[in-house]
Amino acid sequence: MRNEAAQELAAARATRPELLALDGIGVRLGGRQVLSDVTFSLRKGEFTGIIGPNGAGKTTLLRVILGLLEPSGGRVLIEGEPLHNKNKAATGYVPQKLVIDPDMPLRARDVVSLGLDGHRLGFSFPSRQRRELIEAALRDVGADGYADARVGELSGGEQQRVLIAHALISHPKLLLLDEPLANLDLKSEQEIVEVLGRLAREQQIAVLLSAHDMNPLLGVMDRIVYVANGRVATGSTDEVVTSEGLTRLYGHHVDVVRVHNRVLVVAGE
Amino acid sequence: MHYLFEPGLLGSGPVRTALLVGAVVAITSGVIGVFTVIRGQSFAGHSLADVATTGGSGAFLVGLNQFWGFLIAGIAAAALMEGIGVQRRRGRDVATGVVLGAALGAAALFLYLDTQQTSTTGASFTVLFGSIFVISPDTVPALIASGIVALVTVAVLARVLLLTSLSADLARARGVHVKIVGIAYLAALAISVSLAAVAIGAVLSTALLIGPAATALRVTRSPVRAMAAAALFGLAATWLGIVLAYDSYYWPPYGHGWPVSFFVVALVLVGYLLSYARRPNRNRVPRSPHEGAECSPA
Questions:
Q1: Residue range B227-233: average pLDDT?
Q2: Which candidate in A226, A236, B173, B244 could, as Cys together with A66 as Cys, close a disulfide (CB 3.0–4.6 Å)?
Q3: A-proximal residues of B, 139-158, CB under 8 Å
Q4: B178-219, pLDDT tens digit by residue?
């Protein structure tokens, strides 16, 4: 995929240090090679979409970056260092659609509070400083209107905002989101994308999210990591999402059709 | 008021012991029950109670205090459950069909032998349905200490347990050893079930564990308040149950008090039903102004 445009982009990006780098990652699950030779990097403030059909290995890739899954080959580097417990804290994570029971005794503010120290033993005592931190995180994602509502009773879009605030409160440099737009209505989808785009821009957080549809992200996405057939293609959307490029990646003919600023990938003859 | 509180109630040594032990049991069960409900582990709680029956009846046979029988069997069962993996459906089937069957079968044998030994049905009744009025004062310190151990364990793990209930992957990604936390929690649960088994009996202990917690979760929103409310509801049911059982000495058939367990469990049920009468705290605080738009046709 090394064309001139890619090299130009690479030159422009080289001025900014790499926050996350995947180097030749391969994953075997149950004796099957799920991903091979995944190489890409992320920089501060960059908005990257991991795009691909269902079952392509998007979640698997995120799990490798989170250190939840040991790759069969390759390296994951955060700011040039292999994953360890300390630099894992630089990563905020929003898991795939959670099913939260309405009886779960957690208000939106409790969920965000768990983002501060939910992984530690002991208790946390309420303090003014803590309260302000929580409220600031809720405001950042526009969820301050339902801080005291039970999280299980919120709509899908509202829950996503609260979970993003949960991830944000520990000031991550990298924010990973697994299918945050799945099961959202169009309006919430746009709102979440807008919130994430703003976080990348204003707080210089590197946002990496997976989605099966790239269209809602076209306006904010700096880079795309297209996953198909166990491999990835990376670059700007224009470089990666072409009939030739994706045909090579999928290993069978696909057509990329652009209609009204929307991109459709259709299986060809 | 003296219709409820019979004269001499608080002058009686066994009643004072019962009220004290009842408080320890109710608070421990209530607090731990909240986590049992939100972790979806009511089944684990009930399994522990079934296995505790075996331990309690076995302890009777060898002349050991039944609490130690409940506790040893409960902890062993907790370890076994973790091994089988009761969280998984298949593990659950194996646990129900094979392990619990075997445990209750052994309990049947032990209880039969107990009855042969003592030629009364006292042992069966005590193990299965509790004996809060005949707790030997010697075991009270051990009961209180066990309750404290269980409560401290859960208090230390509270945040991690909540995070894990929200999403195990989220917890794992932040370096939580989800499995170790789960084992520590099951151990605290085993202690709590053993305490409840002493008070209201092994087979009824789940009611005190789950009932007040489920009620509390319906009427509160934050974790701390849910725990406090569950402890309070459990305490109210237990103390009121003890008082009513004491009163029932004068109810037909005269001269034989009704079992405390009946009153406690009945009060737990009444409390839960009452939580439906009052519309729970689903107070949707004023939400974002664009909320309404979601429902209208686009």
A1: 97
A2: B173
A3: 155-158
A4: 889 988 999 999 999 999 998 888 888 999 999 999 999 999
- Judge if A79 and A139 occupy the same domain: no
Compute the distance between CA of residue A129 and CA of residue B157 in angstroms, rounded to an integer.
23
Structural contact between residues B188 and B147, judged by C-beta atoms closer than 8 angstroms? no
Q: Which residues contact A84 (CB under 8 A, 6 or more apart)?
A: none
Indicate if the pLDDT at residue B292 is higher than 70: no
Tokens coding B172: 């794992």
Q: How far apart are the first and last CA of chain B?
A: 61
Same domain, A63 and A136: no
Instruction: Answer whether B26's CB lies under 8 Å from B235's CB.
Output: yes
Number of domains in chain B: 1
Note whether A148 contacts B221, CB cutoff 8 Å.
yes
Q: Is residue B257 part of a domain?
A: yes
Nearby residues of A30 by Cβ (< 8 Å), 6 or more positions away:
none
**Are A37 and A106 members of one domain?**
no
How many beta-carbon contacts under 8 Å exist across A and B?
A: 117
Report how far residue B111's alpha carbon sits from residue B257's, in angstroms, rounded to the nearest whole number. 23
Residue B206 belongs to domain with CATH number: 1.10.3470.10
The bridge status of strand A91-94 relative to strand A174-177 is parallel
Q: Is the Cβ–Cβ distance between B25 and B239 less than 8 Å?
A: no
Amino acid present at B280 = P
The answer to whether position B199 is within a domain reads: yes
One domain for residues A114 and A130: yes
DSSP helix/strand/coil, A80:
coil
Is residue A268 in a domain? no
Does residue A85 contact residue A260 with C-beta atoms inside 8 Å? no
The ipTM, to two decimals, is 0.87
The reply to whether A13 and A135 lie within a common domain is no
Tell me, yes or no, whether A208 and A127 share the same domain. no
Do residue A176 and residue A84 come from a single domain? yes
A110 contact partners, CB below 8 Å, separation of at least 6: A151, B162, B222, B223
Which residue of B lies nearest to A124 if distances are taken between CA atoms? B159
> Hey, are the CB atoms on B175 and A119 less than 8 Å from each other?
yes
Where in the sequence is the domain holding A130, given as residue range(s)?
Answer: 100-170
The pLDDT assigned to A13 comes to: 67
Enumerate residues 34 to 63 of chain B having a beta carbon within 8 A of any beta carbon in chain A. Answer: 34, 37-38
